[in-house]
Amino acid sequence: MSFGSHEGRLLEVFSHFGMIQKESSSDPEEALINVVLTTPKQRLLKDIAQLTEAFLAMQSLSPAETVNYLSFVTGSLFELVSHPDQDVRMAADEGINQIIKLADIQLVQHVIYEIFIEIKRSLHARSLSSALRKFSACINKIDPKKRR
């Protein structure tokens, strides 16, 4: 599959989550929370899988262009980590784990930065604890000379 087809899959999930709108009357995070809470569990699980798979496929094809989508993908997944349903939380957490585990060398710094941003934002206790665990798991990917 081409980069464009994976990008289309990502945009489809973003539009389903209400992140792509012609006119946004409310805060994007608030819109995402409202959509996620009203979406059926099976649809959310499918969207999480599609989001993760499309992002990882895009990363393998063109890491430089994939960085543009990283903040949207990680933000969505961290928001889903605090979902009331346990299956959705586990799927979102696994999606974040896959992105961290398979992060290309060019993408590692950006992934760590997005996790740090999530720690600073810390909207929910579950997303904060997940971000802290992910950050501690990523710390070994940072060059020891740069860890000051």
From TrEMBL:
GO cellular component, one term: cytoplasm
InterPro entries xref list: ARM-type_fold, Htt_N_HEAT_rpt-1, Huntingtin_fam
Domain of life: Eukaryota
One Pfam family recorded for the sequence: Htt_N-HEAT_1
Full protein name: Non-specific serine/threonine protein kinase
Organism from which the protein derives: Mesocestoides corti (Flatworm)
